[in-house]
Amino acid sequence: MNVVELKFLLKLLAFPDYRAPVSQITPNPKTSASERDSICRTLSDRELIAYSTEVTEFSITPAGHALLALNTSQLPIAEAELQLLKAGAAGFTIPAEIAAETTLTMPQATIQNLVDRGFIKIEKAKIQDVWLTERGAEYLTDEYNPSGSDPVISLDLLTNYLRFIRKSLRQGAGSRTKIPNIQPIVEDVFPSDFSQGISVHHPMPADTEILKMIQNLDRELATDNYLPIFYLRQKLQPPLSREEVDRALYRLQRNDQIELSSLQEAIAYTPEQIEAGIPQDIGGPLFFIIVTERSGAF
Questions:
Q1: Using CA atoms, how far apart are residues 116 and 185, in angstroms rounded to an integer?
Q2: Domains in the chain, start-ordered, CATH in brackets?
Q3: pTM, full prediction
Q4: pLDDT per residue as tens digits for the range 197-248
């Protein structure tokens, strides 16, 4: 970890629950917003912090256009989602233009829901809040070993770190600093009972590990890059929940690392295997995982 990343974390420790608007986390006075956001993403990739985003621009996908071409009076889609799709088809960006054209009061969750279902694609997003993760707390209390002699860390930042360590010690021997279970805006699109299941005690595999597992299963089972989802669930559930696996697949899809295809002929599979797919409002469940060429596997 370089000095500027360390300063980012130490500044974050000064805020209640170790959460703050990203605009208030400036490692150095001359750090630009783009540099700050780059640091934030780097720390997030290492799972030391997490952050929420606000979508500022999106585009409608071919699936979204196809949906709008249907009889809109019979679509299994909420009115707010339909308004956003129509706005996207007209080329609007958000939040300013869409907010003026719709009656939406909280469009971000609606946008994410449409993204997860493949109807729109995020073009631009800005970081809003940032917070320390359980992994970040573990790293700072148990693993980080600073080195060097340059006087680059202020006493104020050192105070933040000492308070953090003392709080961890007060919680009892062997106990770690407890970080509030704060989920980014993407979680808002799921029912509240799903979020209860997110507070788990097992390590969440990285998306790259899940992608590698998909590739290995496809080779082992000779599914010719059409891996049924139930095989992946057998590997990951438990310890992961069904919803966690679904979200991981949606993330891989958004990153163009996989495609998800629906089941057309059900005769070759059992009802339990079909049930393991991801239900859709229109058509059959998403059932097959296809690794894209971009992932470098096929």
A1: 12
A2: 1-189 (no CATH), 207-295 (1.10.10)
A3: 0.50
A4: 333 334 567 888 899 999 999 888 888 888 999 999 988 887 788 888 888 8
